[in-house]
Amino acid sequence: MNNLEYIKERFNQLPSVNDLNGLGVIRQKAFEALNKMGIPTTRHEEWKYTRIGSFFNKEYKYTEAQHALTAADLAPVRLPGYEQANELFYINGRYAPELSVVRSKGLTVQPLQEAARNEYKDIVSKHLGHSSNYLKDGIIALNTAFVQDGVFVYVKKGQIVEHPVYIYNITDARQANILAQPRTLVYVGENAQVKFAETFNTLGTQESFTNRVIEIVVEKDAITEYYKIQTDASHASQVATTHIQQIGKSYTHTVTVSLNAGLVRNNLNIVLDEQYCEAHLYGIYLQQGNSHIDNHTVVDHAKPHCESNELYKGMLDDQSTGVFNGKIFVRQDAQKTNAYQSNKNVLLSEGASVNTKPQLEIFADDVKCSHGCTIGRLDEESLFYLRSRGISERTAKSLLLHGFAVDILEQIKIAPIREYVDNLISERLEFDIA
Amino acid sequence: MLSIKNLHAGIDEKKILKGINLEIKPGEVHAIMGPNGSGKSTLASVLAGREDYEVTDGTVEFAGKDLLELSPEERAGEGLFLAFQYPVEIPGLSTTNFIKTAVNEVRKYRGEEALDAVAFLKLMKEKMAQTNIDQTLLSRSLNEGFSGGEKKRNEVFQMAMLQPKLAILDETDSGLDIDAIRIVANGVNKLRSKDNAVLLVTHYQRLLDYIVPDFVHVLYNGRIVKSGTKELALELEERGYDFIKSENVEA
């Protein structure tokens, strides 16, 4: 039995399929969509360079709700500043409320199953699956079919959540190969502010595949920052979909950091669905070994007077491969749009490669848009300049590469998280640049 | 200190230097002048170890070592410094971090202890005053968005920090107005001593008004065709390079 058959069997065993008041309807729809579409293959235009089919030819276990982790297991994965932060733990894709701590006023975190029934049910039913991407992409449908274990995060209107929300995805692969499917719906109320940092850690040496979906709804005058930091074991792979819907005039700021893992596919979709929205998207990826990083971003300018600004930078070493696919849509209605996009890559070895594809689809006529991409090697003249001052070739390379990453690092506005990421990058550059 | 014998070098099959001979002793200032394309910058690049150039013949001895066998960073460690004609802009690397790394790598090469933060700061303050460079410039990314004059001043500041035995200034005056030249030249003059030497590579005589050379050499078509004292530079300024060219028509 391959993994997909196993997943389908698991779906049928779950009790809430017929629960039409809660999450049953969306789960059923997603399951049907998954059955129809299957897992995307490289014949699918959006998956041309990233092959995930092999993860479904292996046996991966979809674990029970109980986990065997203690606070001591969690200590090494906690992010700096956790003492004040709100901490949400997902173990093998399932929210673990007994480990999680919510400290900030005006911040509510609940199992999605509960939120779908209580005073938040209107918000959940309106916004869960708002992207409807689960009807277009099998991998998102797969996550949505198991949405009953998801989490609902609610930021109250007018609330400034001063301390960040840390989301820890922990895969316990000590006993078996693991399939984890974390799912989160975030609602940021009018005039509220919140910051997230999310990490991924694997325990044990078995393989794992994480299929994570987060949807973020941002209301009028709200500000949301999201930092996704991915530095995991090379036997851990993931598809991570972040869908941001700016339904009021609002501001979002995301930084996607990809430092290590097997295969990583990041989908970041942002819909600017009200006038005067602003979205800033940054990304940095450092790849080595045989790792594969794929960043797919979509910025959908649906309304006039919005601005989006995107910069992704990558360094690829050894036999690693990279993909950048950035789409900007400017709808017919979206006059006075400002949209900028840039992707810059440095290849550090003969064996590394990158496919980059910026795409602009503009249906309005009064807009300012630009996009561009570069692929190159470390600049020889810069290297010579540093070496001529007595700096060894190895140190010179790491200084240049760190310099290349700095403008992305500067976009991480939670200071301890910026330092944390900077340390990870510095460590990598010192040890792995030949 | 520096002894160049019969140096031949080129790039991609093209011969540029065709037998250079030059001796520089501690305390001396030499100027190499010559028309465009004569090989001045090539000479500076070959001495600093730029890898694009291939040395096909000859020897270069520096401080008792075979210079051509050394990597660029080893040359710097031995006390050679090249002030670039076009200093490179490096975004994301602060000038202070850069110079601190350079100073300590050079010290490591020489078997000296790395400077701690306090000692480094003290040295930096001293050299900033000496070369008339501003703190705000040093906290910015290396050369990024610097004006031409600021870049050249930064080169002289780096030279002051690294205290080389031999400083090669490649067209340091190019693109600078007279005030900027004066500031840069003052910086260089303050660093002169009986133990170190300077090699000025320049197209024009005007820099030599401020950094007065002991010897002037005229490079033409890959060879030093004339050597003399500072009066030779004045003669070149007056008569132009044409008289050199006419004296050296190739058979």
UniProtKB/TrEMBL annotation, chain A:
GO terms for biological process: iron-sulfur cluster assembly. Residues 176-404 form the SUF system FeS cluster assembly SufBD core domain. Residues 23-166 form the SUF system FeS cluster assembly SufBD N-terminal domain. InterPro entries: Fe-S_cluster_assembly_SufBD, SUF_FeS_clus_asmbl_SufBD_core, SUF_FeS_clus_asmbl_SufBD_sf, SUF_FeS_clus_asmbl_SufD, SufBD_N. It holds the Pfam family SufBD_N. NCBIfam families: sufD. Belongs to the iron-sulfur cluster assembly SufBD family. This is Fe-S cluster assembly protein SufD. It comes from Niastella vici. The lineage of its organism: Bacteria, Pseudomonadati, Bacteroidota, Chitinophagia, Chitinophagales.
TrEMBL record, chain B:
It holds the Pfam family ABC_tran. One of its GO terms (molecular function) is ATP hydrolysis activity. Residues 2-246 form the ABC transporter domain. The keyword ATP-binding applies. CDD domains: ABC_FeS_Assembly. Keywords: ATP-binding, Nucleotide-binding. Belongs to the ABC transporter superfamily. Ycf16 family. This is ABC transporter ATP-binding protein. It comes from Niastella vici. The lineage of its organism: Bacteria, Pseudomonadati, Bacteroidota, Chitinophagia, Chitinophagales.
